[in-house]
């Protein structure tokens, strides 16, 4: 029983490691299941969900549909290195800038299946293989299904053959009525299309996956462009042609869709159509305080004003008087300044523009500046370039200060160097735990069959716990020394890439671990930690209340029972009274029996790992 309770601690901890607070909860009674059984149940549930989703996607097409239409799975293009122009731009900006539209087709496998629930449009052209339902009533009763044959004809009883290939769907009913009217009077007729034929079309030119494709005849140019992986790194987003019978019937510009939502040039495909992707055209770059910093492909005659519109316009912190510019033929000079009022300035291939952030003291020294992203309850969220040596409070001021509902005590400050350090520490914890467990196992004497079975169970628990450690992901959060009643930030220097999220005043707290009903609960200023635990049904039957702790909104950790637990020494706050605050997360660990040296070590390791995992849970409480 003791080992089984400990196993639950590992499983509960794993749930925290694998997702934010409240994302996953064990159903009642699941705590008693062995880990292998529970893992099998969870894997089976995921399999059923995947099968259900797959079934939902594939339930519509009939067997005939599958015979006529190929379901295509093609890998999306994976770019392993920067293009020469992207490399040049990054050398000027000191950070990478990607091509606008490059994420249109996500990395990974893209699957295309025909949608059989489309309403057939009136301009759909009928051809061999289409299934037509014909009904007539009045002076005659008729209910038949006809398949258009290879000659493009259908057979009407008494009347004979009728050529329908090449007709638009909107004209089909009238054509049948006219033909049957030669033999019958006083009748009504309706005609509709059932199963549609498949067609073969081609993608050529600078496509990520050129070739021939068998698709639904309700597919459009855009459908096939996406399934073929989009333009390649050398392909154009703005010069895509639909060629039919040797003539161009549509010039498709993906920018019209991506920037303006215009699909007017996205036509239905017909048999033997060719989609040709041209080579990439001239490119320019714009970065800094604009809505969509990116590298843009340009067309002849486009101006600076067109580029600003494509990039989503200026952000609220942008200098609207001037832009910085590096001209490709004067790149050794570096950035020069041009007036934004010169919106008619023609764009020139290779130019790099920088929209200056007003928070930057000296824009010409951008390569030495610090990039910091601020989000949440600040007046002007966004990415800021700050001078070297800038501090956190200066970044907050650059973003317009705190919004009225800001909760500075819960500020989430993350740093890449801190994440790497946490990762190193976690690796050390794992190695030390492995050594501790191996030492405890090696000293275990060989005894009776019952003793050996107990040792085998211990080994199983060890392997499970080590697996949970490997799945823990450090957040890189740095605990700021802010008091709950404090509105200003400490004098803390910034590093390039720092991220600051100031949450809104939270209205919830989290209660997890060995409690009857773990979850997220509304905050009440009258709550104490003990009464909050009562809301969660109180401690569980195997809980170790003496080692329960609170993860504060600022990321610090405090024991509920201050008189116990020496290994958390130094983590306690300087508050005089232990009060519950908005955004707090309470965690009650499992008690591990019997109290042997090995289980005591395991209990301590479990609590340390719980704190790693609960960092993500506390962030979840604050962000929600």
Task: Summarize the structure in words.
This protein has 624 residues and is an alpha+beta fold. It has a 5-stranded mixed sheet, with helices on one face. Strands 14-13-17-15-16 form a 5-stranded mixed sheet. The radius of gyration is 33 Å and the shape is extended. Mean pLDDT is 75; it is low at 1-38, 47-79, 361-367, 562-576 and 613-621. Helix content is 29%, strand content 23%. Among the domains are: 2-19 and 506-623, Outer membrane lipoprotein wza domain like (Outer membrane lipoprotein wza fold like); 72-118 and 198-279, Roll (Outer membrane lipoprotein wza fold like); 131-193, wza like domain (wza like fold, 2-Layer Sandwich), CATH 3.30.1950.10; 283-358, Outer membrane lipoprotein wza fold like (Roll), CATH 3.10.560.10. It starts with a helix and ends with a helix.
Tally of DSSP β-strands: 27
CATH architecture assignment of the domain at 2-19 and 506-623: Roll
What is the top-level CATH class of the domain at 2-19 and 506-623?
Alpha Beta
How are the strands of the largest sheet arranged? Answer: 9-8-12-10-11
- How much helix is in the residues? 25-40%
User: Helix count?
Assistant: 13
Mean pLDDT: 75
Which helices and strands occur, and which strands form pairs?
Elements: H1 2-18, H2 35-58, H3 63-68, E1 72-75, H4 84-93, E2 109-112, E3 131-138, E4 142-147, E5 153-156, E6 160-163, H5 169-180, E7 187-193, E8 198-205, E9 211-216, H6 221-227, E10 235-244, E11 247-252, H7 254-260, E12 274-279, E13 283-288, E14 294-297, H8 304-310, E15 318-326, E16 336-339, E17 352-357, E18 370-376, E19 382-386, H9 392-398, E20 412-414, H10 416-442, H11 449-470, E21 477-478, E22 499-502, E23 508-513, E24 519-522, H12 529-535, E25 549-551, E26 557-559, E27 585-588, H13 597-623
Parallel strand pairs: 8-12, 13-17, 18-22, 23-27
Antiparallel strand pairs: 1-2, 3-4, 3-7, 5-6, 8-9, 10-11, 10-12, 13-14, 15-16, 15-17, 18-19, 20-21, 20-22, 23-24, 25-26, 25-27
Helix pairs in contact: 1-11, 1-13, 10-11, 10-13
């Amino acid at each position: 029983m003791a080992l089984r309770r400990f196993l639950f601690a590992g499983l509960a901890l794993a749930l925290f490691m694998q997702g934010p607070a409240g994302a996953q909860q064990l159903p009642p009674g699941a705590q008693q299941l062995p880990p292998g059984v529970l893992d099998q149940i969870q894997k089976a549930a995921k399999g059923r969900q995947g099968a259900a989703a797959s079934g939902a996607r594939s339930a519509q097409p009939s067997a005939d549909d599958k015979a006529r239409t190929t379901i295509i799975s093609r890998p999306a293009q994976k770019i392993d290195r920067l293009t020469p122009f992207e490399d040049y731009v990054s050398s000027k900006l000191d950070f990478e800038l990607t091509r606008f539209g490059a994420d249109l087709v996500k990395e990974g496998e893209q699957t295309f299946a025909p949608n059989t629930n489309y309403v057939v449009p009136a301009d759909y052209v009928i051809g061999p293989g289409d299934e037509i339902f014909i009904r007539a009533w009045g002076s005659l009763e008729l209910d038949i299904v006809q398949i258009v044959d290879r000659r493009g004809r259908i057979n009407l009883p008494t009347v004979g053959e009728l050529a329908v290939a090449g007709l638009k769907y909107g004209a089909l009913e009238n054509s049948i009525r006219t033909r049957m009217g030669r033999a019958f009077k006083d009748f009504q007729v309706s005609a509709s299309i059932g199963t549609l034929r498949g067609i073969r079309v081609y993608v050529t030119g600078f496509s990520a996956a050129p070739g021939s494709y068998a698709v639904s005849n309700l597919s459009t140019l855009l459908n096939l462009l996406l399934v073929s992986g989009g333009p390649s790194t050398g392909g154009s987003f703005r010069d895509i042609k639909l060629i039919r019978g040797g003539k161009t019937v549509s010039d498709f510009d993906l920018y019209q869709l991506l920037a303006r939502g215009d699909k007017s040039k996205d036509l239905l495909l017909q048999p033997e159509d060719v989609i040709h992707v041209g080579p990439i055209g001239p490119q320019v770059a714009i970065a800094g305080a604009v809505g969509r910093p990116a590298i843009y492909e340009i067309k002849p005659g486009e101006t600076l004003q067109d580029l600003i519109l494509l990039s989503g316009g200026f952000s609220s912190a942008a200098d609207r008087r001037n832009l910085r510019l590096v001209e490709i033929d004067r790149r050794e000079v570096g950035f020069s300044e041009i007036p934004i009022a010169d919106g008619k300035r023609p764009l020139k291939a290779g130019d790099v523009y920088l929209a200056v952030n007003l928070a930057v003291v000296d824009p010409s020294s951008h390569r030495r500046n610090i990039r910091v992203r601020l989000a949440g309850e600040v007046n002007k969220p966004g990415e800021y370039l700050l001078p070297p040596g800038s501090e956190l409070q200066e970044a907050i001021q650059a973003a317009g200060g705190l919004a009225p509902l800001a909760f500075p005590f819960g500020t989430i400050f993350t740093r890449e160097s801190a994440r790497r350090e946490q990762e190193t520490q976690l690796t050390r914890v794992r190695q030390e735990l492995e050594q501790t467990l191996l030492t405890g196992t090696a000293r275990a004497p060989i005894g009776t069959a019952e003793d050996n079975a107990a040792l085998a169970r211990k080994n199983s628990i060890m392997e499970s716990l080590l697996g949970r450690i490997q799945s823990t992901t450090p957040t890189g959060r740095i605990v700021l020394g802010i008091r709950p009643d404090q509105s200003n930030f400490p004098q803390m220097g910034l590093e390039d890439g720092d991220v600051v999220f100031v949450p809104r005043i939270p209205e919830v707290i989290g209660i997890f671990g060995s409690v009857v009903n773990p979850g997220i609960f509304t905050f009440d200023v009258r709550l104490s930690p003990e009464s909050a635990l009562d809301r969660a049904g109180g401690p569980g039957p195997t809980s170790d209340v003496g080692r329960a702790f609170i993860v504060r909104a600022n990321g610090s950790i405090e024991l509920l029972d201050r008189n116990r637990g020496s290994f958390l020494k130094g983590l306690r706050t300087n508050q005089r009274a232990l009060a519950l605050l908005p955004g707090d997360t309470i965690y009650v660990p499992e008690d591990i029996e019997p109290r042997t040296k090995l289980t005591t070590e395991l209990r301590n390791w479990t609590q340390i790992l719980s704190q790693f995992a609960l960092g993500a849970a506390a962030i979840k409480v604050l962000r929600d």
